Amino acid sequence: MTPAARYAAAAEIVDAIVAGERLEPAIRAWGRAHRFAGSKDRRAIADICYDIARRWWSTAALGSAETGRGRVLGLLRARGVAAETVFTGQGHALAPLSAQEILMPSDPVPYDFPPFLIRELEEVFGSRLPEVNAMVQERAPVDLRVNTAKTSRESLARLLAEAGFDAVPLDDVPTALRLSGSGRGLTETDLFAEGLFELQDAGSQQIVAFAKPETATTILDYCAGGGGKTLALAAASGRRVVAHDIAPRRMKDIPNRARRAGASVDIIDTADLPERCFDLVYVDAPCTGSGSWRRDPYGKISLTEQRFDDIRHAQVAALRSASRHVAPQGRIAYATCSVLKSENNLQINSFFNEFDFMISERNLSIDFLSDRDGFYANIITNISNL
Ligand SMILES: C[S@@+](CC[C@H](N)C(=O)[O-])C[C@H]1O[C@@H](n2cnc3c(N)ncnc32)[C@H](O)[C@@H]1O
Fold first, then answer.
1. 269 is in an annotated binding site
2. What confidence tens digit (pLDDT) does each residue in 263-283 have?
3. Which EC class, in a word (predicted)?
């Protein structure tokens, strides 16, 4: 396929998203319907779709239309690419620009965040918001968590280099390596199969370390999902970790992942979870994922005010039910991959009003400006002796 034909394919996929399809399924459906497209074409088309999704609002403004065609035009303008080289009308390319489309729009270009969140983001980031906005328009770097139960960071960096992947250590996160490339093919290597590393953002690793799992004897990962934090908690503590999730099917990959990592994990149903038992209850709460929208831009496209409310209610419910399992003098680590106050400190404050036996000890916020995903964590201690 020519580069111009790839943009035309991306425009088709974006139209499907505008019509209500999810990003990944829309890309896959296009692939199934166009078997002739090779793997390089598919990858390039998917990259364009992701780039547009990261710039969902600004591309529509710059292309003067909320369609796939308009957003392709907007993306080209954002990148300073001459649009007439893509809108050629030749072969499978998009039709040439109309006189109307050739006119540059004069309206201000909006931030690439859901409009109903702009006020809260302005409160969080103040004058840094334009810089934050520019960061979320770009792809996120690829970080690895070294499985220190099996190897050291230096050895892994050497083995990765031999396998053709350049990775450098991040000074302030002792378990993290940052890849210089896209990391394509990394999970097909023997190094991955042997459990020497996991793909995990450096911010995520910092948040787990912040909970000090190495000081806990009994650890419950209350919202374990696919088990990313479970494995990190097990590696950092060197202990068996209990994994739980309200939706047990989300944990289906944990046994295999734990085996590969050499981690000890017990998966327990809600009904079997002992009360007042764990030194550390890690609550990786359901959230908007606003801190990781560079990786999952569909998350911001699909977020509605109703869904935002539902998520915040789910956070309170998770905190409330998780608190039953904390041992006296034990602690909850409440964590989100969100940069929004209303999912972070405001939730913790309302939790205190309800449960007066918990006190906040310390918290950590990470935002994109350190070029890692945005996270928040707060450690809440159970000061009850009962
Ligand atoms: C942010 S995801 C967890 C990601 C996971 N910890 C990881 O590192 O891969 C949040 C998880 O919380 C779960 N969840 C939501 N409400 C819950 C509740 N009340 N109790 C337990 N789990 C809950 C969801 O099913 C979802 O899997």
1. yes
2. 999 999 999 999 999 999 999
3. transferase
